[in-house]
Amino acid sequence: MEKVQAEREKRAAKHSARQTEQLAAGEYGAEQSGRVIAHFGRTLEVRGADGAAVRCHLRANLQGLVTGDTVIWRKGEDGSGVVVAAAERASVLSRPDPQGRLKPVAANVDQILIVFAVEPTPHANLIDRYLVAAEATGIAPVLVLNKVDLLADHDGELGQLLERYRALGYPVVRASTEQPAGLDALNRQLAGRTSVLVGQSGVGKSSLIDRLLPDETLRIGALSEDMRKGTHTTTTARLYAMPDADGVLIDSPGIREFGLTHLDADTVTDGFVEFRPHLGLCRFRDCRHRAEPGCALLAAVEAGNIHPQRFASYRRILASLDT
Ligand SMILES: Nc1nc2c(ncn2[C@@H]2O[C@H](COP(=O)(O)OP(=O)(O)OP(=O)(O)O)[C@@H](O)[C@H]2O)c(=O)[nH]1
Ligand SMILES: [Zn+2]
């Protein structure tokens, strides 16, 4: 196994040296911009300006590129390309690796779609947890209520819950895979942006993605067989261009689990957007917002400026960090 790996690296190094010569000799086309569809070690799949996927190698000095990164690349005579530069990222989504170190997995994501559903019954606490994790990335969260076909005539408690999030400024989209109109609002929300779908098991993420990307070859990607043999295939994030709108989805099993990893207490506090105007105003600088006199957060709850259920969520998420 190690021998195979060493051989592979040797080949890659040789290829890279040859590329440097070819670049110098002008055997590559003009520079153009593209976006990383997926990466497999030193090989990238890049989406060019014309939408076509091109297999690219990396210049030796380029490292740490992830799905969604914007790159400058040049086309070679054999149809493959070489990535010569990377653009700055507008945002990055990270996940801890098995050693607990945060590793970027997707770049330039515009919005995180937090999917929940009429069934399983959504818990405000879990939605808040996702929102906190999204706020920590600086990427805009959007709430997607799926399976609205299962709703009774009046939304009841669920309607009130959604209203509360709307009042905080979060967009709420109603979706269903079972109704013709169920995907329209979602498609509008996805248009022109790069999005990821996150949410607990069973809310319908796979079903929604199946509908948004109906062409299975699109979903799997026009990937050549030898690239698929790479060991990263199942875990690497992949970028999908949506056929109906000029929107882009980035998806991977790891991304879907986003939000359920460790957060620290300050991140949690900052992640409750309506707390922000009150932070730093407590009497004690190290106030933990429990029962301290002069706590500005508790006063805001009393005054009705912070919803008690959101404050209860805050407490629960903090308590989950202690254990
Ligand atoms: N009624 C109804 N059922 C739906 C809808 N969307 C998904 N489902 C069903 O909900 C179940 C779970 O859907 P999945 O797409 O597997 O959910 P998921 O979020 O991908 O779940 P994981 O793969 O476990 O993360 C399936 O039985 C779907 O058929 C919907 O809009 N309406
Ligand atoms: Zn306080």
TrEMBL record:
Its EC number is 3.6.1.-. Residues 90-258 form the CP-type G domain. Residues 1-10 have a biased composition (Basic and acidic residues). It holds the Pfam family RsgA_GTPase. GTP binds at residues 146-149, 199-207. One of several proteins that assist in the late maturation steps of the functional core of the 30S ribosomal subunit. Helps release RbfA from mature subunits. May play a role in the assembly of ribosomal proteins into the subunit. Circularly permuted GTPase that catalyzes slow GTP hydrolysis, GTPase activity is stimulated by the 30S ribosomal subunit. Monomer. Associates with 30S ribosomal subunit, binds 16S rRNA. This is Small ribosomal subunit biogenesis GTPase RsgA. It comes from Halomonas cibimaris.
